């Protein structure tokens, strides 16, 4: 059987092909799954998609009509998939429930340190042989307070790094993580965390309960000189409200690896086009803001785990097994 993989980056293509070798053939496409590209999947029983794929009801209907029966998403998040429609259409859906949490946690700290120590500004200056230090002063992290919203595997890894820096640890989650408590983390209400933290980092999944968890009120509650980092999902932050606060001169820095309207932008080359997203265009102009294109997970270690798990999900499907990563089982399983 030949698998069709959408949204494959150049670095990923040889890794995916090698992982499927000896099991199934795989056709890798650089284009992302959208309403326009969904017809390409006609005749493919199994497809694989990336995190920014459009798997709403229209796309799912097109896939089902073309003969697709199984979707293997190469990500942990699945807020882009209409699971109810997939189940109704008899589509099996699987995801990657786990990969290296260190990839994202380390990148979140990379963003925090980049804005704290003004690395982008310093690099741009030295390229022009401007070696002044004016405007490049940062702050020690030791002894300061970090607030971690979401203390699962990634939040825990992020917390361990913060503990290594010698920071005071505040956490917010529905369930306390004993490992974080063991590091000295104090779990508090979100309002207190925002008011006291010098660094606020988001590691919660995007759910109805966490949609824009950092809204206008939350932003106002943060310290004027705080650092905000989001390496989870763009929908956790009200970006327009964030731009409004930045225009007031607030925050030492903001590091964003995700953006709530990133679909159709991130992972693509838009350098020769006029970007119509006014909010994003304004956001990237602030000197204390760093925006990256959803690359926190993008390490050899994490991507290898994601691909290996995706291959296993496909093998489970073709063997008639229900793996641990299944979000929507086979129609026959639902019927039983």
What keywords describe this structure?
single chain; 336 residues; alpha/beta; Rossmann fold; 2 domains; 7-stranded parallel sheet; 6-stranded mixed sheet; 13 strands; 15% strand; globular
Topology:
Blueprint: E1 2-5, H1 13-20, E2 25-28, E3 46-49, H2 57-65, E4 70-73, H3 83-89, E5 92-94, H4 101-116, H5 119-127, E6 145-149, H6 153-165, E7 168-172, H7 178-182, E8 186-187, H8 190-196, E9 199-202, H9 216-221, E10 227-230, H10 239-247, E11 253-256, H11 278-283, E12 289-291, H12 300-318, E13 326-328, H13 331-335
Parallel strand pairs: 1-2, 1-3, 3-4, 4-5, 6-7, 6-9, 7-8, 9-10, 10-11, 11-12
Antiparallel strand pairs: 5-13
EC number: 1.1.1.28
Protein name: 2-hydroxyacid dehydrogenase
Enzyme class: oxidoreductase
Structure, explained:
The protein has 336 residues and is α/β, with parallel strands linked by helices. The chain contains 13 helices and 13 strands. It folds into 2 domains: 2-99 and 299-335, Rossmann fold, CATH 3.40.50.720; 101-291, Rossmann fold (3-Layer(aba) Sandwich). It has helices spanning 13-20, 57-65, 83-89, 101-116, 119-127, 153-165, 178-182, 190-196, 216-221, 239-247, 278-283, 300-318, 331-335; strands at 2-5, 25-28, 46-49, 70-73, 92-94, 145-149, 168-172, 186-187, 199-202, 227-230, 253-256, 289-291, 326-328. A 7-stranded parallel β-sheet has the order 8-7-6-9-10-11-12, sandwiched between helices. Strands 2-1-3-4-5-13 form a 6-stranded mixed β-sheet. Helix 1 (13-20) runs parallel beside helix 12. The protein is globular and about 60 Å long.
